[in-house]
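Regression check, protoporphyrin IX containing FE case 491:
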Amino acid sequence: MGRLAMQQVEWDDVQGLVLTGYPRLPKAAYILWRMVPGEAQKAKQWLGNLAGRVKAAAPIGFEPEDKAINIALSEGALTKLGIDPQERARFSVEFLDGMAPLPPPQSTHTVSRRSSQLGDVGGNAPDGWLWGGPSRNTEIDGVLLVYAKEKALDELIDSECRLMTGVEVLHCADTSKPLILKAYSRGDRKEHFGFRDGISQPFIMGTPAANALSAKQARFDAVKPGEFILGYDGEREDSLGAKPAAGAAQRGRVPPRDLLRNGTYLVFRHLEQNVAAFEQFVADAAMKVHGKDDQPSREWVAARLIGRWRSGHPLVDPPFAEKENSSARRPRNDFLYHHEDRFGLACPIGSHIRRANPRDALGPDPDTSLRLSKMHRIIRRGRLYGPDGVRNGADNGENAQGTRGIYFICVNADIASQFELIQHTWLNNTHFGGLYDERDPLVNNRDGEGVMTIQQRPTNLRLEGLPRFVTVRGGAYFFMPGIAALRALGT
Ligand code: HEM
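Current build output:
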């Protein structure tokens, strides 16, 4: 894997999902597949042919109108495809271990260190997962990600499944149904709790979108390609993405087969959302805080959990945020915390967005903080599953638990210092930003024991008894190869 200059990203070899979430293709399906024992050769053929159908990131800015296909492999596939130990060793430890490894045999712990760091314990423990955990539907060798327009999805799934050779769609051990996870995005980009999502994403330096950023926003939002694509410089000198393969330091001298080059890692978490619990908590908390649970009082509480109003406008922006329902302007994302809201009086320090990306508020000073934050960004490409639009409607059974959530998908070059760091050191950290004994209010509170402080003068407000709003139901780490690497795997 050669060390390439930032502006020379080989976009035609990078899978499209790195640069776009395919906004014009609202339907998606994540097809979990495994290799058929003894049919590795056929599987290779399938992968090689697939390389011709996979959507590349180039031409940049061109959004596919009818369909897009991307693919990612798990560690199991690499082994079964027979890659040699030297090549295998170049993949990251987190990927090779998997998202939910078993604790070592001699250990007395019931979950592995990784699960414990990710917060995958208790109700989130991999033992209870529908897929990817140790007990059910474990043998996942990869995921085929297909995107289409409204009615064309089933046709695309069918045609792609028909083309599979040497691999098969995994079938759920309990229901015998194929593990084809169908998902969608809403026109207004809201997730099930009713918040506009996907607003804050890093921009990869050198792309037209990054070049168009204001100088202020570029300082924290324009991130070097190596943070998201293997083979390029990242924000750290020693970043994984920049590590050259032995004997291949220069462009043009890369070995003919470099499986990592132009690839990235894809983190997939099946996150179930308990919308009824969220709404109930917000109403109860509004009653405690404001003495009433009318809509504005509830919205006030809900916004503090996230750090943005449901419309997406950030709390650091009070004059505009008051016009909560106005959609006249795109939600602002060029804000920083140090000067605008150092003490969390507008956007609570423990709110979801402030934990997930502390921007310039990590300490010890804003500049260092920005430099550090840039090393821990992810590109989110998740989509919703389950029934849509019943949040405030009558309960016709669709509000039942277990029916909807987010397939959280993110892209990063270094799972440990990007996704895992965010999850562990920021979202799960009980002492984040000087707080005490509280976790991310949205994704990491413990059943009924969650706490959140809302900074206020003269005294802080403390919300208690936060239930579990989000439960992990499955997940896996995947590697999304570059297109040439996919072709090489196919030979
Ligand atoms: C069901 C689970 C989740 C829901 C409903 C959710 C919802 C949201 C919403 C509404 C926003 C604000 C919109 C935006 O800035 O794009 C947001 C931002 C964000 N979330 Fe989540 N999220 C969930 C899980 C996670 C997880 C597990 C992570 C990472 C491990 C994460 C990382 C982020 C990041 C990095 C941001 C952007 C923060 C910023 O740059 O200001 N989220 N999320």
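Comparison notes: Residues 1-5, 244-254, 392-396 have pLDDT under 50 and may be disordered. Residues 271-474 form one domain. No diff flagged against the previous build.
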